[in-house]
Amino acid sequence: MNQASSERYMELTTNTNDMTRKLIDVNNRFASLSDALKKIDQFDKDIEQLEKKAFEIETLTKQLENRYNKLETEHNH
């Protein structure tokens, strides 16, 4: 029984060590991607701001077109 317990303990120790190494590897990979992920987040924020500005420009353009059309209609009558 002691032999079986000892073997099981060694197996668990080996598995734990393997999982620890793999977790360290995953953490290191994530850390190496951290800067890239931060840049992606910043790009996303920048794109969102650009989309808002584009919408504002589109709204202003439509307002100007409406004013122009109104003035043109008034001028022609």
Automatic annotation (TrEMBL):
InterPro entries: BLOC1_su2. GO terms for cellular component: BLOC-1 complex; BORC complex; gamma-tubulin complex. Pfam families: BLOC1_2. GO terms for biological process: endosomal transport; lysosome localization. One of its GO terms (molecular function) is gamma-tubulin binding. It comes from the Eukaryota. Signal peptide: none annotated. Coiled coil: none annotated. Belongs to the BLOC1S2 family. This is Uncharacterized protein. The lineage of its organism: Eukaryota, Metazoa, Spiralia, Lophotrochozoa, Platyhelminthes.
